[in-house]
Write a structure and sequence with these properties.
Elements: E1 3-16, E2 19-22, E3 25-28, E4 31-34, H1 41-54, H2 59-62, H3 75-88, E5 91-101, H4 111-122, E6 129-134, H5 140-143, E7 147-158
Parallel strand pairs: 5-6
Antiparallel strand pairs: 1-4, 1-7, 2-3, 5-7
Helix pairs in contact: 1-3, 3-4
This protein binds magnesium ion.
């Protein structure tokens, strides 16, 4: 029974499209997130927080963006793989807190759907997954709508 914590951060570029994939939810928008996988920036931050807590490196080591197997990958499946590795190593997820940093659109209408999807994949109650959002106040790459960033923190516990 040892408490472990980890942090995660990610950012992805916005390009012309019709929805943003955030926390496994497609949010209607006139842009999409660009990346090797589905570019789900929120889920990537959560994955890195989990890997950090587990002492298992980072998302790039586990799912290299040079590997064609992960082209267009569903990040929820990557998260599922990571949770499986954590459980196999004798640990379990306690909670996850995260913040999406984007100028527009509003995250609030989709917040509960994101919590539900992430919690389902993490194998924990929805109440243990918190999703927050903030804008860039018009400043920097977020404020100019060039990209979206996400931060996450995860707590794990060892089974014994
Ligand atoms: Mg990423």
């Amino acid at each position: 029974m040892t408490a472990l914590v980890g942090i995660g951060y990610d950012s992805h570029r916005l390009v012309d499209g019709n929805s943003l994939r955030l926390g496994g939810v497609d949010v209607p928008h006139d842009k999409r997130l660009d990346g090797h996988s589905d570019a789900d920036v929120l889920t990537h931050a959560v994955i890195d927080a989990l890997l950090g807590a587990a002492g298992m490196g980072d998302i790039g080591q586990h799912f290299p963006d040079t590997d064609p197997r992960f082209a267009g990958a569903d990040s929820m499946q990557l998260l599922d793989t990571v949770v499986g590795e954590i459980v196999a190593a004798g640990m379990h997820v306690v909670n996850v807190d995260c913040t999406v940093v984007l100028q527009t659109p509003k995250v609030a209408p989709h917040r509960e759907a994101m919590r539900a999807r992430l919690a389902g994949c993490l194998g924990i109650p929805q109440e243990r997954v918190n999703v927050k959002a903030t804008t860039g106040e018009g400043m920097g790459f977020v404020g100019r709508c060039e990209g979206v960033a996400a931060l996450a923190i995860a707590a794990l516990d060892t089974d014994t």
